Amino acid sequence: MKLLTVAIPCYNSQDYMRHAVETAMVGGEDIEIIIVDDGSKDKTAEIADELAKENPSIVRVVHQENGGHGQAVNTGLLNAKGLYYKVLDSDDWLDREALLKVMDLIRTFVEDGVLVDMILSNYVYEKPSVHKHKAIRYASAFPENQVFGWSDVKHFKISENILMHSVIYRTKLLRECKLELPKHTFYVDNIFVYQPLPSVKKMYYLNVDLYRYFIGRDDQSVNETVMIGRIDQQLKVTKIMIESHDLTKVKNKKLKDYMVKYLAMMMTVSSVLLIKEGSEESLEKRTELWAYLKDHNINMFRMINRCALSRPMQLRSKAGRKMVVWGYKLSQKFYGFS
Q1: Rounded Cα–Cα distance for residues 42 and 177 (Å)
Q2: Helix (H) or strand (E) holding 39
Q3: 3-class DSSP assignment, residue 124
Q4: 273 vs 214: CA distance, rounded Å
Q5: How far, rounded to the nearest angstrom, does the alpha carbon of residue 74 sit from its chain's CA centroid?
Q6: Are 325 and 274 in contact (CB under 8 A)?
Q7: Three-state DSSP class for residue 134
Q8: CA 122 – CA 322 distance, rounded (Å)
Q9: Between the CA of residue 240 and those of 90, 298, 304, what are the distances in Å?
Q10: What does the H/E/C string look like for 85-147?
């Protein structure tokens, strides 16, 4: 039995995928690595097959027609044999010592007969172009060294969102909540860390810097210019999240508060990008997004609208839009990662 499946979606990843795979192999025979070659045009498929041949008990390869990052995550989940499921992007990597601690933790769960639904750990922004890194840790939000539920969660700082980088799900939970990400769509990681949350009852926070998140490539999906160019996909993901849950029916207050905050963040990011693009068409899309939320569920709209970030996003005057952009630039400067 494999304890952990690490799915690595790869598209034209020949220059860096080997490093990602090798860092995950530290988990040894208790780990399985599924390389999903998403219709690559370079030597990705060849490298993947070579890695599987060299490590047949650990590495498996699935070749598929190009379906995008979300479809690759779906494929990894469909083929996963591990008790837990982790996604590792092909240009990122895992810390050796942290991964060993994660594997020891899962072994303890199995030995004790207590399987949590979600394991959380830290991630680190790696920006080698400016010799800079920044760790995002959750010690202020989650209890340490214990199994806990949503009622035990403490205070989330503004930077402490649960991201794909920080989460490991119980594989069966993802299948039971019928998680399926859309094809040919960027930013689906937001759905991955949002839709399953009401199904999560037991959690464990391991305070280690497991995931190393590389940022800085010009073509990277989180590059602001790229995001503006792909704004329709950002809007699509945000609308899927709006539709996925009626937040007024989430019973646990802390879970509800977190999900409201996360959805408000998605609405804010979409609005800021549309304001920065600045065309009449983009400003109309911003208005339509807020109208979509209001028409879909007026009570959810009111909940989101009460968030501090939300009200300025709907300002229609030129001065109001300038204020939004100024605040966005200030936050980028403060965090140092754009």
Answers
A1: 35
A2: none
A3: strand
A4: 22
A5: 14
A6: no
A7: strand
A8: 34
A9: 25, 16, 16
A10: EEECCCCCEECHHHHHHHHHHHHHHHHHCCCCCEEEEEEEEEEHHHCEEEEECCCCCCCCCCE
- Which tokens sit at 8? 């690595």
Tokens of 36: 């999903």
**Which H or E run contains 27?**
none
R_g (Cα) of the chain, nearest Å: 20
Residues forming a β-bridge with 286: none
**In angstroms, rounded to a whole number, what is the distance separating the alpha carbons of residues 59 and 7?**
10
**Residue type present at position 306:** R
For 147-157, what is each residue's pLDDT tens digit?
999 999 999 98
Stated pTM of the model: 0.91
Closest CA to 31 of 3, 61, 54, 9: 3
Task: With CA atoms as reference, report the closest residue to 163 among 244, 265, 233.
Answer: 265
For the chain, the average pLDDT equals 90
Amino acid at 86: K
Q: Residue 148 has what pLDDT?
A: 98
322-335 core/surface letters (b: 16 or more CB in 10 A; e: else): eebeeebeeeeeee
Q: Are 5 and 81 in contact (CB under 8 A)?
A: yes
